[in-house]
Amino acid sequence: MNEENKMATALSQNQNCSSDEEKYQNFICNKANTTKETVKKHVKRHVKETFKCKVCDKDIKKDNCTAHNRIHTGEKPYKCDQCGKCFTQNSNLRTHLKSHSTEKPFVCQVCEKSFALKQTLKGHMKTHNGEKQHPCEVCERLFATAATRQSHMKVHTGERSHKCELCDKSFSRKDTLKSHMIVHTREKPHSCQICNKGFTHRSTVITHMRTHTGERPYSCNLCEKTFTQSCHLRTHQKIHTSDSKCFTCTICAKTFRHLHHLNNHTNMHNGQKNYSCDFCQKSFRESRLLSSHIRTHTGERPYSCQHCDYKAATNSTLKTHIRTQHTGECPYVCHVCDKSFTRLDYLKAHMCKEH
What we know:
metal-binding, two-stranded antiparallel ribbon, Znf_C2H2_type
């Protein structure tokens, strides 16, 4: 029996109901309705009336024909009043509007990061359970979601479609541009409860807190080295692979694991220094060098020693302090006489004086 006949049978069988007080029975799914009109409306849900799209031959439900045609025409009549983004369906616009809301009711139970949409949280959870089913066709790196892989592809294509209107700097992702804009506004709404340092993002505060607690939750399963951030672990794990460096400098043939490392290196050749200090106008090739330099003006020392009360302006300075004052570790070894040193500058001085 086809769907139309089912509907006719269901309606005809309900003719035997003698009064409005009796229940009208849907003989397709046995759901009871109070009136003949409601059972007729409900039965229509079982009837899948479809039309074939003349452009792509896809079978489309009657109610979705208008929205489907917009895929081919490019029409997007529903516009967001806050960012100007347009959509083919009103339901998609309503979902998008939640991204502008400060309310983020869906919270990750692992890292406490919150999201406006439930499906965004589901995609995020894949970063914790290790589920990565979307490989990059260029470098074979795996991603948890197709959207993340699509964003990553811009690393290979060099596409930077999101431009800053204040400094003409461009970015491959819209959220990266949004984060960059805070450089101009200097807004830091999130602060550390221990040292009162301000941050632009709440997630950065969580990472920063590990400099105080010493927590390093991400560990390498090959050498057991630990890290404070998952991105640092991913970078480290490439050390264990033979083909980990796929970006090559065209000037000196030096190779790098990441495109932004290659870009920073290229600036060394052309002398370009895009990051300037607002206090003394000194310029730097990399943003991290500028951040370290600014602390010479502010006196900020965010890195705390877990053995004593010493605080350092940079993580490398803290590591040097721990080696020289506490552990005695000597990682810098002279290849001529095998003498080891706690600091690289000590090794260089030794090489000049003795060899």
